């Protein structure tokens, strides 16, 4: 299934900074009629409202608080595209003293938060003709990194859930995209010590809307992501079921 954002209504979690902010700007640049900026503090998108006017609508949403997700789904009853961008990362090695606490915190946002978003917004998308649901996973969903192993485990779980979500939502004509960035120039990447490996957030925004327009399930935005995709190509094609991989760099 393909999806064009022009003229559509979009909701983006974590839209006030980093990748989410760039996705919001790109959605508007590509003709989105309205973008709900779903953030924990609505006042944090005041600058975006000033920049884009009434095409940006702040909405309170916290992935750890299901009541805010349900309220946002009621508010954004006209949404055509949901981009679940918000996520968290903790630095934790496999035997760290706080490894369990890190896992519980990250999985509650990165996995359970995704489940809550899907359950709340799938009926809205169905009522509006199908639309699309985009999940920001990570290249770390396919490869573990020792220094933040609980994050990679949460993203692996999120990726598997996104695959199931694609199959389930196809029945209501909702396209699903799983996005797998490598290190991107954001606060999260800097906190993880990856600042020397990053690429700009714009590559993620471009990859999302290109994948939607071309009907692809996977989006591999940057060099590291594309290298991982090439290594996993046979598995992705044969097991996950997405033959539309990006061309080799």
Report what the structure shows.
By secondary structure, this protein is an alpha/beta fold. The chain has one domain: NAD(P)-binding Rossmann-like Domain (Rossmann fold, 3-Layer(aba) Sandwich). The chain contains nine helices and seven strands; from the N terminus they run βαβαβαβαβαβααβαα. Strands 3-2-1-4-5-6-7 form a seven-stranded parallel sheet, sandwiched between helices. Helix 2 links the parallel strand 2 and strand 3. The protein is globular. Belongs to the short-chain dehydrogenases/reductases (SDR) family. This is (S)-1-Phenylethanol dehydrogenase. GO terms for molecular function: 1-phenylethanol dehydrogenase activity.
SS field, number of helical segments: 9
CATH topology: Rossmann fold
H/E element sequence: EHEHEHEHEHEHHEHH
Give the beta-strand count. 7
Low-confidence stretches: 243-249
Strand order of the largest sheet: 3-2-1-4-5-6-7
Structural class: alpha/beta
Question: Approximately how much helix is present in the residues?
Answer: 40-55%
- Strand content bin: 5-15%
**What is the domain tally?**
1
User: Overall pLDDT, averaged?
Assistant: 92
CATH superfamily (homologous) name: NAD(P)-binding Rossmann-like Domain
Globular, elongated, flat, extended or rod-shaped: what is the shape?
Answer: globular
The CATH architecture assignment turns out to be 3-Layer(aba) Sandwich
EC number: 1.1.1.311
Keywords: NADP, Oxidoreductase
Enzyme class: oxidoreductase
InterPro entries: NAD(P)-bd_dom_sf, Sc_DH/Rdtase_CS, SDR_fam
